[in-house]
Amino acid sequence: MKLTYKKIAILLCATFVLNSCAKDEEFVEETAITASARPATAATFAPLEATSFADVPYGIDPKQTYDIYLPSNRSVAKTKVLIIIHGGSWMNGDKATMEHYIPYLQEKHPDHAIVNMNYVTAQYGVSHAFPNQFLDIRDVINSLKYNSFDFNISTEFGLIGGSAGGYLALMYDSVFDTEDEVKFVCSIVGPTNFDHPVYTERPDFQLLMQILVDQDVYPNIEDNLGLLSPVSQVSENNSPTIMFYNRADSKVPLSTAKDLKNTFNELGVPVSFTVFKGDHGAIQDNERVELETKLSGFINDFLPIQ
């Protein structure tokens, strides 16, 4: 068959169109493969789900662990951290005794991360409480800061301590929080003044000091108990503090708690002070509701999620 110029032109056009379509299909397929292999951008990340990790180590001692509860949709920019510190006279206790605070805090403050920490308890001839337990809080905070991008949490903290844990929180904020990373402290019946007869007149007071205090760090401490007493260590640089104490407390005299509250007032540090009726740590159900309500308001005021 003879091809006219017109037919040749038509064939050339058809060939060009077919080749173009084939290249377009290859381009679309290649683009799809490339896009699927390309790292996702921040805009394509799925929202983070709530999760938790138990017994995260922050030191070499088996007691140096914490549990962390991470909320959904958390981020380094906004997810601030509540750290819970247990009691037990500095020689006993475990983070498990503070687990009842977790559901309440998760319900009232669903956008905060929560950390429930253990620390190395004092044992005669083996380990001292002071300053080691203060330093354990520091090491927990350093661990959280180091892992902030992995956990997707901020580096702003609130400390919530019960009994000995309340004391540790007060002392840490007063003496060791040099970078103002702690934004508020909650002390629930935490001791405030070791230089009080309820302690100094105990028959085992000297033995207690030997167990609790590393006297290489605090020499002659019995003559200078103010070094370990929050009432003598607070300053205008302290964080806002919320305090809960008991009127009939045989271990932490109410007068010592009032002295600390008055010192905060004199220094201009925001302070909330609530007195319940019972003995040390004996909080009734209606009182616990009041504690939780006031503590939640304090968290919203001084460690808010923006």
What's the level 1 CATH class of the largest domain? Alpha Beta
Task: Give a quick account of the main beta sheet: strands, pairing sense, barrel closure.
Answer: 8 strands, mixed
Strand content: 15-25%
State the distance separating the first and last CA atoms.
Answer: 81 Å
* Low-pLDDT regions: 1-44
Helix content: 25-40%
Give the count of helical stretches: 10
User: In total, how many domains does the architecture comprise?
Assistant: 2
Examine the coordinates and then state which fold CATH places here, giving the name of the CATH topology of the largest domain.
Rossmann fold
Oligomer: single chain
What gyration radius follows from the Cα positions, in whole Å?
30 Å
In CATH, the architecture of the largest domain is 3-Layer(aba) Sandwich
SSE topology string: HEEEHEHHEHEHHHEHEH
Strand order of the largest sheet: 1-2-4-3-5-6-7-8
CATH superfamily of the largest domain: Alpha/Beta hydrolase fold, catalytic domain
Extended strand count: 8
Helix vs. strand class? alpha/beta
